[in-house]
Nuclear transport factor 2 family protein
Amino acid sequence: METKEIADKYFKAMVGGDFDQMATLKTPDAVYWLSGEGSWPFGGYQSLENQAKLWGIVAQRFPQGMNMTLQSISSGQRFMSIFGARERIAAFTKTM
């Protein structure tokens, strides 16, 4: 599967509330960054443990998924970035 295709599936899983599918699309060495570094507990770079906490909270609050719009996907052989918008912009980066 191409990197951009993985990013698209990840975003669609997030929007659709398929949080288990999101987890299967990340590698153990994924680097995860969210906007808002220093302004909330999940801003900035996140460990796999923090990612699990974050998506657990999101799954509880948005069991049907998140109403977000895909803004862009950037990808290369070893990275991808997804930018989506709800009220704020979030980014996901995965190394491959």
Observations:
- The chain has three helices and five strands.
- The chain has one domain: 3-93.
- The helical segments are 3-16, 19-24, 48-61.
